[in-house]
Fold these 4 entries.
Entry 1:
Amino acid sequence: MGVLLHNAKTQDGYPSSFRVRDIVVEPAVVLAPMEGVTDVAFRRLIRRIGGPGLTYTEFIASKGIAKGNRHAWRMAEFDPDERPIVLQIYGREPHLMAEAGRLLQDSGASIIDINMGCPSKKVCNHSGGSALMKEPKLALEIVKAVRAAVTIPLTVKMRSGFDATNRNAPELAWAFQEEGAEAITIHWRTRADRYMGTRAVDKIAETVQKVSIPVVGNGDVIDIPSAKAMFDDTGCAGVMVGRGALKNPWSMLEIGSWLRDIPYTPPAALERLGAIEFYIEQFISTMHTPDGDFAETAVLGKLKQMSKYFIADQTTRLQILRSQQLVDATDLLRRHFHGMAETAHAA
Ligand SMILES: Cc1cc2nc3c(=O)[nH]c(=O)nc-3n(C[C@H](O)[C@H](O)[C@H](O)COP(=O)(O)O)c2cc1C
C-alpha cells in the first residue's frame, strides 16, 4: 500500500522513483552499501557512470564515529555534490548509535541507515548487523535512540530474518516504522543463508503489504529482468544492487534507464577501461598522504581485489594477481581492454 503513496510510475507501471520523506530517489535503483568496496572512490566511479538514485557508504562502526576514530571518519567521507547520500552505521549500544547518527547528520548526511543485515562475524559477534534481528527488543531500542537523536530521515537495512525459523522482517519492519523509520531495505536471504540459498522474496512482499513506508527489495538484482522480477514479485518501491554493481558498474545505469524510459547503450571495451582507470585515479587520490605520496601497495591490492569482479578473463586476472608493481598490473589491464576493443572492431 505504501508503494502507491510514494512512487511515480513508468509507462509499464514500474516505479520510476520513490520518496524517503522529502528525498526523491530517482530512478528507483539504489547502490548497496558494501564494506571494502563502496568507498568514496568507488562511488565516484558509479556516479560518473550514472544510474543509482541513491548511494550508501560502507557500514561504519558507531563506536568509531562516537569516539572520533580516524578510520571510521574516513569511511564516512563523501563528496559535497553526492546527494542524496546514506551513511550507514552499525553497533549494539543504543547511546553510541545515537551519538554516531547525530555526528554524521552534522557532517551532512542526507539519511542515516541502521545496519541489521550484515552477516560478518566482526559485526554479528558484537550483536550488531543481522544478529539484531534475533534481539528485537534491543533492535527497537536502537531505532528509538537514533530516531530521537536525528532529524533527517532514518532507514533500516536488514535480511528476511536470522535463519529459516526466524524470518521476522515484516514484523520488525512494522515495529521500526512505528518508531519512526522512514524506509526499509530487505535482502531476501537470511543471515544463515549468507550469500547462498534459494530465492524467496515472500518476506519482502509481506513487508510491502504491512508497512506504509517504502520497502526496497534486495538480493541478486543484476539487470533489467532481475529488477523486473523483484518489482513484480514483491511490489517494492525500489531495488538495491550490490554485487551486480561490482561485476558490472553499468548495471544500475541499465536498470535506471529502463525505469526512466530512456535508451541505454552498453559501454564499449575502451569506455570500460577508461572507467577503471578513473577509478584507480580516484582511489589513489583518496590514499594520498599530506606530503603527496600514496601507498602503492594499497592501490595494487585494491586493483587486485577489484579485478576479480571487473575482468572476466581468468588468465588476465591471474596475471594481475601475480603483479608486483602497480605499473605492471595497469599495463595488463590496458592490454586486456585494448585486445577486446580490437576483437570487437574486427568482428
Ligand atoms: C563485499 C560486500 C560487502 C558488504 N558490506 C555491507 C555493508 O557494509 N552493509 C550492509 O548493509 N550490507 C553489506 N553487504 C550486503 C549488500 O549490501 C547486499 O545486501 C547483498 O550483497 C545482497 O545484494 P546483492 O545480491 O545485490 O549483492 C555487503 C555485501 C558484499 C558482497
Entry 2:
Amino acid sequence: MTFPELSEHRAIEFTPAQLADAMNVCFEGYVMTFTLDAAAFERRFRSEGLDTISSVILKSGDAFAAICLIARQGWTSRVAAMAIAPSFRRQGVGQRLMNKVIDEARSRGDKHMVLEVIEQNPPAIALYEGVGMCKTRRLAGYRREPSVGLAADLVRIDPSAVIRAQAAECPSDLPWDFKAETLTLKVGFLKGFSLGDEAFALISDPPGQRVIIWTLFTRKGSRRSGHGRKLVEALAALYPDRALVTSVTLPDDYCPEFLTALGFAEVSISQFEMALEL
Ligand SMILES: CC(C)(COP(=O)(O)OP(=O)(O)OC[C@H]1O[C@@H](n2cnc3c(N)ncnc32)[C@H](O)[C@@H]1OP(=O)(O)O)[C@@H](O)C(=O)NCCC(=O)NCCS
C-alpha cells in the first residue's frame, strides 16, 4: 500500500467547499499565502480542466493530509496543485503521491505530465526533479501600473472568436494557461476585443484593481505596425484606474521586448514549467 498511514480519496468525493478547505490546510506556509472558498476553488480549477477522478486527496482520520489536483487535456496531464499539510511533510508523502499520479497518467495512456512551480520554492523543485521531471522553460508575469492610455476604436467581440483567431495566429506550444483549450474553459469569464480586425485581446476584469490579459496578439501579416501598442493603450484607457497584468506563465522568450516597450515590468515571482515524458 502506498500510504499505509493515510486514507486515499478522489476529489470527486468532496464538495468544492471541502476541497477549498483541503487546499487551505495543505498549502499552509506556502511561498504565496492565499485562502480559497468554494466559489474561488470552482472558478480557478474548473477553468483549468480539473479532473476530479484523477485528483487524489489523502486524509489522516478527519484531517486533510495532502492534495494533488490533476487537470487534463488530450494526452497531457498537469499537476494543477500539489501540497502536503505541514505535519506530514518530509516523510516521503509528496514523493509517493507524485509517483502515484505519474503511474496513473501512464496507465491511462497519457504521453506527457506537466506542471508549473514557483522558482522561489526550492523544496518543490527538488521534489519534482526527484521524480524525473525536468525544467523546460522559465515563465514570467508582467504588470503595468494604472495609466490614462490612449482611447481607440476597440470593438467588443465574442471571446470564442478571439480564441479561434489565436489558434490560427499564435504558436501552439503555449503554457497551459494560454492554450486555446484552457481559454475555452474560461470563456464565460472573459471579454474579447478587436482593433480593426488586426489585433485581438482577451481579458478578465474581476472586482478589484487589476485587469488580467489572457491573450493579446496581432495577425501574423500585420506585426510591427503599431497595432499591439494601440491595443494595449486602448485597454489602459478603458480601465485607467487599474493595473494591466498577465498571469505568471509567459515564457521568457515570448515577447518581453514588446511588454517592456509598453511600460510593463516583470513581477518578482516567476515560475518554471516542468515536464516528464511518460
Ligand atoms: C513541496 C512539498 C509538496 C514536498 O512534500 P513532502 O511530502 O514534504 O516531500 P517528500 O518528503 O516526499 O520529499 C521528497 C523530496 O522532495 C525534496 N524536498 C522536500 N521538502 C524539502 C525541503 N524542505 N527542502 C529541500 N528539499 C525538500 C527532497 O528532494 C526530498 O527528497 P529527500 O527526502 O530524499 O531529500 C511540501 O513541502 C509542501 O506541501 N509545500 C507547500 C506547498 C507547495 O510548495 N507545493 C508545491 C506547489 S508547486
Entry 3:
Amino acid sequence: MAYGGKTKTMNLEIKDLTVRLYPKKNAGRHINVVDSVDLYVNGGEIAAVVGESGSGKSFLGLSIMRLNPPDVSEVVSGSVKIKCPGEKEELDIMRLNPKNLPSVRGRLVSIVFQDPNTSLNPVIKIGEQITEAIFAHKKIGKPEAKEIAISYLNRMNIDGKARFNAYPHELSGGMRQRVMIAMAMVLNPCFLIADEPTTALDVTTSLQVLSLIEKIKLESNLGIIFITHDLSIAKNISDKIYVFYAGQVMECGKTEEIMDNPLHPYTVSLINSVPSLPADYMPKQKLFTIPGYLTKDDFTEGKCRFYSRCFKRDNNCLKNIPLNEISRGMFARCIKV
Ligand SMILES: Nc1ncnc2c1ncn2[C@@H]1O[C@H](COP(=O)(O)OP(=O)(O)O)[C@@H](O)[C@H]1O
Ligand code: SF4
Ligand SMILES: [Mg+2]
C-alpha cells in the first residue's frame, strides 16, 4: 500500500514483499523476517525505515538488492520495481534472472552499510577499490576510471588526488564511510540504500556524513532508503518515515505528520524514548514506557507483532493485523487507531 504522489519517471516501489528466514539445522520455526512490506521512494526523496535492533531493517535492505543469504532465506512473495531515467523499462528486481543482478546493483541501486571497516578491503588502496567498482560495469581505461574515482572522492569532501593511494587504515572512520558512499555513487545510481551509515561514527562526523548524503540527494536527484534505529536522525533527514517492527511496517506517512501525530502505540513509544527531540515534537498523548525487548517470538504469525509489549493490547489483537489508511497518506497497523 503506497501513499502520496508517486512520480512517473523515477521511483522504487516495494509491494507485498515477504522474505522468510529458515533456522539453521532445522532448529525452531521459520520466521518472515520481512513481512508484507509496501514502500516506495521517488527520486530526490528520502524514505527512512526506523526501528529497533533486530526488527529486520538490514534484512529488508539486503532483500531489495537480492543480497539476503540464499542458504537460510527465501523471497516468498512480492516485487521490488525500479524505474530510472534513461532505462527502457521498469525492472522487477525480484524477478530478474540472477545473471542480470550485477548489472542492476551499483548501476541502478546501491547500498552503503553501517561499518566501513568491514566493507572496505584493508589491504587494497581506496582508489583501486573504487576503480574496481567502475570496471565491474564499464569498459574504460585506467586513467579515465581514476579520474572518475577522484571526482567522486572530491564530491565527498576528500582530496581525491592526495588520497587515491591511501589504504583504509590511513583514513579516519568518517572518511572511510565517505569513501564507501563515493564507491556506492560512482556509477551514478538513481537509488541508494543507506543502512545505518552513521551509527559507527561520533556525533560530529555523523552530522558531516548526513549533510553529505543530503547534498548528493539534491545534486543527483537520488532516491534514498535511509535505514536507522535513531528517530531523531530520521526526523531530520527524511521526507517520509516507515516505522518498522518485527519485519512489518507498523506506521508510515510524511515525516512531519508522524512526528506531530503518531498513531501506532509503537511509534508513540519510540518518540517518547528520544529525549533530545524538541518539545514541539513531543506527542500530545500521555508519555508511555514500553516494557520488554523485541524477540524472535514477536515475528510469530496470527497476532499483532507488537502484542507482547503493547499497553493497549487485548484478545482482539490476536490475529494478523493489516496496514490500514487511517487518514489521507497516514497508514497504521493497529486495530485501536
Ligand atoms: N543471516 C542470518 N541468519 C540468521 N538470522 C539472521 C540472519 N540475518 C538476520 N537474522 C535475524 O533476523 C532478524 C533481523 O535482523 P536484522 O535485519 O539484522 O535487524 P536490524 O537490521 O533491524 O537490526 C534478527 O533476529 C536477526 O538475528
Ligand atoms: S493491534 Fe493491539 S497489540 Fe497491536 S499495536 Fe494495536 S492495540 Fe497494540
Ligand atoms: Mg541492521
Entry 4:
Amino acid sequence: MNFEKLKSLISSGNVPEVRKSVEDLLMSGTEPLKILNSGLIEAMEEIGEKFKKNEVYVPEVLMAARAMKEGVSILKPLLSSEQLGTKGCIIIGTVKGDLHDIGKNIVAIMLEGAGFKVIDLGVDVSPEKFLSAVIEHKADLVAISALLTTTMPSMKTTVSILKDKGPSNLKIMVGGAPVTKEFAEEIQADGFSEEAGTAVDTAKKLISG
Ligand code: B12
C-alpha cells in the first residue's frame, strides 16, 4: 500500500481530503494501525524533519497537525489503547508562572505525531500538578517548557520535586528559548532539546533507556 498521497495531504494540511483518504484506505481493507504508523505518524515525522531544517515554519506544522488529528480521530475508535500510544506516555506543560505555550504546543504535537501518548497540562503548571499527573497516568517522561528567565527557577524546583517524589524510572526533558544544555544539566534534567524536531529524538532515546 502506498501512503505517499495521504502523507502529502497531511503536509499540505488538507483536512477534508485527509479524511477521505483515510476512509478510502479503510474501505480497501488497510489495517487501521498500518494507516496510523505508515501514513499519519510518518507524515508528521517528515514535517518534524523539515521544521528542524527550517524548510517549514510554525503555521505549516499547525496545519499538518490539524490534518493529522482528523485522521487519528477516524482511526481512534478502531484502535485499542495499547495500539495508540505504544511508545510511552509523556506529560507536558509550561512551568508555574509562565503563560507561553506556542512552542510547548508544537513539541506536544510532534511527540503525539511520533506515536507517544501525550497529556498536555497547559500553562502555569505547578510542580505538584506535574507530579500528580505522572502518578495518575503512570508516565514515562515529563517534558517541561519555560520561556522566561524569571520562570527558570520554577523549572529547577519542578525537576527537583519530580526527582524526589516521582517514580525512580521517570525521565525529565526540558526546553524553551532561554533554556540551555548547561542549565538542563545543572538542574539535573535527563534531557534537553532546542526545538521540537530534536525533542522527539531526545524523548525516544530517554524512554528507550
Ligand atoms: C508570543 C509571546 C508572548 C505571548 C504568549 C502567547 C502564547 N500563547 O504563548 C504573550 C503576549 C502572552 C506574552 C507574554 C509575556 N511575555 Co512573551 N513573548 C512571546 C514571543 C514574541 C514569542 C514566543 C513564541 O511563541 N515563540 C515561538 C515558539 C515556536 O518558539 P519557542 O517558544 O522558543 O519554542 C521552541 C523551542 O524553544 C522549543 N521548546 C519550547 N518548549 C519546549 C519544551 C521542551 C520540553 C523542549 C524539549 C523544547 C521546547 O521547541 C519549540 C519549537 O521548536 C517571545 C519573543 C520571541 N521572539 O521568542 C516573547 C518573550 C518570550 N516574552 C517575554 C516577556 C518578557 C513576556 C512578558 C513578561 C511581557 C510582559 N511584560 O507582560 C509576558 C509574560 C507572561 C507570562 N507570565 O508568561 C520575553 C522574555 C524575556 C526573558 N528572557 O525572560 C520575550 C523573549 C520577548 C522579549 N524579547 O523581551 N509573550
